[in-house]
Write a structure and sequence with these properties.
alpha/beta, TIM Barrel, two-stranded antiparallel ribbon, 14 helices, globular, binds flavin mononucleotide
Length: 411
């Protein structure tokens, strides 16, 4: 019987010691020059001591002019290799650390980056336009440059001693924008058909693989669907998963949603029936499993060892991803691997104001504050109020924006 304690071998040959994975959570613990800080490394030391098999880092950007948020770490050359080495070595042997590589495309707060690009110049939903600018369509040269940057960042991750990389292909960022018929309305080789829309992610994968070789784990996080009118459908997502599996991907993590429809944290339920089954994207994983044998991880909603082990035993997935639980209980894997529930419980973070609560950003900022506390060597604060966390995020975000401007001005 497969359970979270079972090891697993990936197609590249790497063996993970168990089936528990910390999914990416953007830590925003980079310094003014986009390098990892001692706090970031301490956070991974803490998580590394939990016995978990795989830690995926929060998204790391591949271009300092294309941040997702202030405080991102950026890897575009080897200037921060020493700190990257320290980060890669933060967990004991047995626990792997993979870097999640990301380009935000259009999904970056207004004014943060000098230019916002996307496959096409499609504006955000009117409700979001105050926060997110309408992007410009990427040129062919920009597309090629971004593919090269993904590959270069992966090469540096390997050199720094990280155990693998994960492409962020989910949640409405650039790779996900290329996959979406809503965001990608190109009529050249990068859009117009499912095959053309998935060309970008396949090129990114191939460029990374060419840099890191066949034995280095390369994974991807993908949306089961965008949950947005005209967005990526389940059927097209399955076609992309099959193509990526065929190309040699080692691990495909299933999530869903975008900032415009934030189902990934359950702020807006993907389907009412999922509540009964703990995880949000299990039904999709079952359908995918019928079509491919690529190792699958599912993230979103998993809380109890019983729910995790039942899902693994069903054969629908191979690895259980957990995110928010790790932000309030960094030792959660120790309990789970012994068949016990974590004493902490993930609860909805609510202000009572619908527009704020449904935006998804409240959850993200509340949990990011907990990550900061762990990194600073302090205890988590699971009962922190929603308004208090918003106020702290605002102060921190404004300071972060000022340092991004200073760092860019300094080159
Ligand atoms: C603070 C925070 C930051 C996140 N940052 C990322 C990220 O950088 N990349 C990513 O793929 N997902 C990110 N996510 C989504 C999580 O990986 C995960 O998909 C989601 O929280 C659902 O899993 P859970 O129910 O176990 O929390 C983030 C979530 C939170 C709470």
């Amino acid at each position: 019987m497969t359970n979270i304690n079972s090891s697993i071998q990936l197609p590249c040959g790497t063996v993970l010691q168990n089936r528990l994975m910390k999914s990416a959570m953007s830590e925003t613990l980079g310094n003014d020059h986009f390098a990892p800080t001692p706090e970031l490394i301490r956070l991974y030391e803490r998580w590394g001591s939990s016995g978990i098999g795989l830690l995926i880092t929060g998204n790391v950007m591949i271009d300092r002019h294309a941040l997702g948020e202030p405080g991102n770490v950026v890897i575009e050359d080897e200037r921060d290799l020493d700190m990257l080495k320290a980060w890669a070595a933060a967990a004991p042997s047995g626990t792997q650390i993979w870097v999640q590589l990301n380009h935000p495309g259009k999904q970056a707060p207004k004014g943060l980056n000098p230019r916002n690009i996307s496959p096409s110049a499609v504006p955000f939903h009117p409700k979001m336009q105050a926060l997110f600018a309408t992007p410009e369509a990427a040129t062919e040269a920009e597309i090629q440059d971004i593919i090269r940057r993904f590959a270069q960042a992966a090469r540096i991750c390997k050199k720094a001693g990280f155990h693998g990389v994960q492409i962020h292909g989910a949640h409405g960022y650039l790779v996900s924008q290329f996959l979406s018929p809503h965001h990608n309305q190109r009529t050249d080789a990068w859009g117009g058909s499912p095959e053309n829309r998935r060309r970008f992610v396949l090129e990114v994968y191939r460029a990374i693989r060419a840099e890191v070789g066949p034995a280095f784990p390369v994974g991807i996080k993908l949306n089961s669907a965008d949950f947005q009118r005209g967005g990526l459908s389940e059927e097209e997502s399955m076609g992309t998963i099959a193509a990526l599996a065929e190309a040699g991907m080692d691990l495909i993590e299933v999530s869903g949603g975008t900032y415009e429809a934030p189902v990934m944290t359950g702020a807006v339920p993907a389907k009412a029936s999922t509540a009964a089954r703990e995880a949000y994207f299990l039904e999709f994983a079952e359908k995918v499993r019928g079509k491919t044998s690529v190792p699958l991880a599912v993230t979103g909603g998993f809380r109890s060892p019983a729910g995790m082990n039942a899902a693994l035993d069903s054969g629908a997935l191979d690895i259980v991803g957990i995110a928010r639980l790790m932000a309030i209980d960094p030792d959660a894997p120790r309990h789970l691997l012994q068949g016990k529930a974590s004493p902490a419980s993930v609860r909805p973070i609510r202000t009572g104001v619908g527009a704020i609560d449904n935006a998804g950003i409240l959850e993200i900022s509340w949990y990011a504050l907990q990550l900061r506390r762990i990194g600073e060597g302090r205890a988590t604060r699971p009962h922190e109020g929603a308004w208090m966390s918003l106020a702290k995020t605002l102060v921190h975000g404004l300071a972060g924006r000022r340092s991004v401007k200073r760092a860019r001005a300094a080159g």
